[in-house]
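Supplementary Methods S3. Complex input for the cytidine-5'-triphosphate-bound model.
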Amino acid sequence: MLAGKTIILGVTGGIAAYKAANLASLLKKQHADVHVIMTKNAQQFITPITFETLTGNKCLTDTFDRNFEFHVKHVELAKRADLAIVAPATANVLSKLAHGLADDMLTTTLLACQCPKLAAPAMNTRMYENPVTQDNLSLLKKYGWLLIEPAVGLLACGDTGAGKFPEESLILEYILREIALEKDLAGKKILVTAGPTQEAIDPVRYITNHSSGKMGYALARMAMLRGAQVTLVTGTTALKPPSFVEVIPIQSARELFDAVTSRSGEQDMIIKAAAVADYRPVSVADEKMKKADGELVLELERTEDTLQYLGDHKREGQLLCGFAMETSDLENRAREKLERKNLDLIAANNVKVAGAGFGTDTNVITLISGQETKQLELMSKEEAAMRILDALLEQMTESSGTIVHNTDDSGNNTRRHPDAQ
Ligand code: CTP
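Predicted complex, serialized as structure tokens:
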């Protein structure tokens, strides 16, 4: 997701400096061009060789080093950077940055940077809570820095409190949110449902299905990365919820109906990837049901069909996308659903096709709208999520009068990495 992006990673002298190596590695895995700049103190904790090996770039440490490609390296790099992050950021370096002090390679480069700048402060709790540090952080915010809150927990010095270096994967999410994708969904409110529902039989048993939630979570994350304000209504899954998304946990189809319909009015798009039970037990036993001789017959009743309700109450300009999981006659059945439920788009898949359906990391979907049927090839659920969002955005833009061309002749999406090589 960071192909073609140049990132400056500033590493300063705190005990968490070694964790910056993992961050550098995560950034490289996203195909970013990572340039690490270390302060003198950082080199007491970890050596430049570690970063050079991980990034394939010279690790910059000395402003007056004569052995580099550019004449004025700090300005050159600052001009090229798409994003700069200082992680970990010590109280000392934060103080320098807040006051414009530039006395080494890192601070001179950052002073010349006009790209988004992030810092992940990490230090002892007392140092972090000191009003001087807090004032410096406020100043940095005022100057446009995005600060990543430190985690709370046991610190290297033995104290417990705020000041821990956040998970590197979370820092990566901040970076991705800033620069990974074009913000073509900025200002849009999108609600996504995901995962299975559970319909109670008694206090220990329920009826459910095999939905993993992966498709819905991918949709929520991609919409967030494209700038949307996202609400994720989710059944119980084993997945980590995406960052920067409002997560509403539900269990039953009734809870899903309430959670979605109470928020539906304000949404620009609603995407219903949840696998909702169509039936639930007519009555739920108060006590655990005991086995007995003979057969057990459970009487079931229909659940609320949330998507049908949304289609019947759709407001002007709102877009509704449903999912259809079929085992045969995919297109006709999905198109019938599209019409019956008054949808704008339906993502249909045949669970019998290899790589499609529950549990997998991939999907094979057919996008069906009023005008067309588009059969997509096997792709990751993230890529499928992008294509669904593209299709919805295209409908929204067309209905408001502006046409966007987001696919090339071969059907490949071209909006994601405007400057990818
Ligand atoms: N859906 C819903 N509420 C339900 C059931 C389904 O909102 N009670 C939504 C799902 O989230 C999905 C779509 O409706 O987006 C699926 O449509 P549906 O016609 O219910 O599909 P199936 O359950 O597969 O129905 P059928 O048995 O008729 O094929």
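The pocket of cytidine-5'-triphosphate is lined by residues 193, 253, 272, 274, 276, 278, 303, 305-307, 322-325, 337 (CB under 6 Å). The first strand starts at residue 6 and ends at 11.
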